[in-house]
Write a structure and sequence with these properties.
A four-stranded antiparallel sheet has the order 2-3-1-6, with helices on both faces. A two-stranded antiparallel ribbon has the order 4-5. It has two domains: 2-214, no CATH class; 227-374, Alpha-Beta Plaits. The protein is elongated. It starts with a helix and ends with a helix. The chain is built from 14 helices and six strands. Helix content is 66%, strand content 9%. It has helices at residues 2-5, 10-13, 26-55, 61-85, 90-111, 118-121, 125-133, 136-155, 172-217, 227-244, 258-265, 267-284, 309-324, 352-374; strands at residues 248-256, 290-293, 298-304, 327-329, 332-334, 337-345.
Length: 375
């Protein structure tokens, strides 16, 4: 049962095309679509051959036509697969296969009644396939060629060209019905397969855009917002508070002796310190707060609805409590120390640069006092 669950149609299609593209690349899905188109056409033609071989007597001209048709299209499919896989030319391969299908249908129409042949109806698949697999411009060109072919088949008897009637004595209405049915089934399959690959491609593009947006706006080591995105959020927060007459507090946290720990135990140890501290900040702050890493050992937090210095001191104490908790790291327990500065909008400034500068200066003043206290 698990083997059936793991089955993937792409395991059949992927060996037929070039493998130079990675998963998620738009070209990969276009190549898969072309390979799937060729494979599905061969499956349908094989079914037609089997049905024809069963119902038509051996030696019948109709059976001979079907066999010639199958061999011709088979060779065309192999050539298309070679161009797609070896030369990595998807559009060329698709055009070759469409041309082979078109010539095969023209041959079948000429041998079985011309414009009155059920095969002439099947030419409708040509512009549909070219539009979905290549583009609208290719669809227009192949549509014109199909129209020209229908016109020539219509006027061929009047121009003196002999049109054979090699079809066996079967009901014409049944033959037309089968031709229409096969054409619509093939068009429906191509359309559904095209929609499926397009949907998958769109989903992958959306996923990649989200991942790119996340990587562009977040610090790769800690997962918190990076400096560039933090400045954008800080500016947006200033704009929001100006309109709503609200306030916020900007905390500036500098990790003391981080460089010393990094040099003594290695960068891996330093990365663990940053990851644990950033995780604690995210978990201990409110959902409306913004946590960011703006430098090697510097973090900032935007806390909304803080208007007074008393509010800021309460927030500072909350961060001090976080710092006092020992960290369990690979090298053992480690207690982090930091200097914390802050500024309040609009008390200490109305510009993001002024607020950052004030918080930074406050942080260095706190750090200076701590050094003097130790000495």
């Amino acid at each position: 049962m698990n083997k059936f669950r793991r089955f993937n149609i792409f395991s059949i299609i992927d060996p037929l095309h070039s493998k130079t593209y990675s998963e998620g690349d738009a070209k990969l899905y276009r190549h898969r679509f072309t390979a799937g188109l060729i494979l599905s056409a061969m499956v349908i033609l094989s079914a037609i051959l089997i049905i024809a071989s069963y119902y038509l007597p051996h030696g019948d001209p109709g059976l001979h036509i079907v066999r010639v048709l199958f061999v011709f299209v088979g060779l065309g499919a192999l050539l298309s697969i070679y161009v797609l896989r070896a030369l990595d030319q998807r559009i060329v391969a698709t055009n070759i296969f469409i041309a082979v299908i078109g010539m095969a249908l023209i041959y079948l129409a000429v041998m079985t009644g011309g414009i009155l042949s059920p095969a002439s109806i099947c030419l409708i698949i040509i512009p549909v396939i070219s539009t979905l697999s290549i583009g609208s411009f290719a669809g227009k060109i192949w549509g014109v060629l199909a129209f020209v072919t229908w016109t020539l088949l219509f006027f061929a008897p009047q121009l003196g060209f002999e049109i054979k009637k090699s079809m066996p004595s079967v009901d014409d209405s049944l033959a037309f019905y089968v031709s229409i049915l096969i054409s619509h089934i093939f068009i429906a399959f191509v359309a559904f397969y095209y929609e499926g690959t397009s949907k998958t491609l769109r989903q992958n593009l959306i996923k990649e855009r989200r991942e790119y947006h996340y990587l562009a706006n977040h610090d790769e080591h800690t997962g918190v917002i990076n400096r560039r995105h933090f400045i954008e959020i800080l500016q947006s927060e200033i704009t929001r508070c100006e309109k709503s007459e609200d306030s916020f507090c900007l905390f500036y946290i500098d990790l003391n002796d981080f460089k010393k720990a990094n040099d003594e135990y290695g960068h891996h140890f330093g990365d663990q310190i940053l990851e644990v501290f950033a995780r604690r900040l995210r978990h201990r702050t409110r959902a409306t707060d913004t946590v960011a890493r703006i430098g090697g050992d510097e973090f900032c937090v935007i806390s909304r609805h803080m208007k007074t210095e008393e509010d800021a001191k309460c927030g500072e104490q909350r961060f001090e409590d976080i710092l006092q908790e020992p960290m369990s790291l690979s090298e053992g327990s480690y207690t982090l120390r930091a200097s914390i500065g802050w500024s309040i909008f609009p008390l200490h400034g109305r510009d993001h640069e002024v607020l950052l500068k004030h918080a930074d200066q406050h942080m260095y003043e706190v750090k200076r006092r701590k050094k003097e206290g130790r000495s």
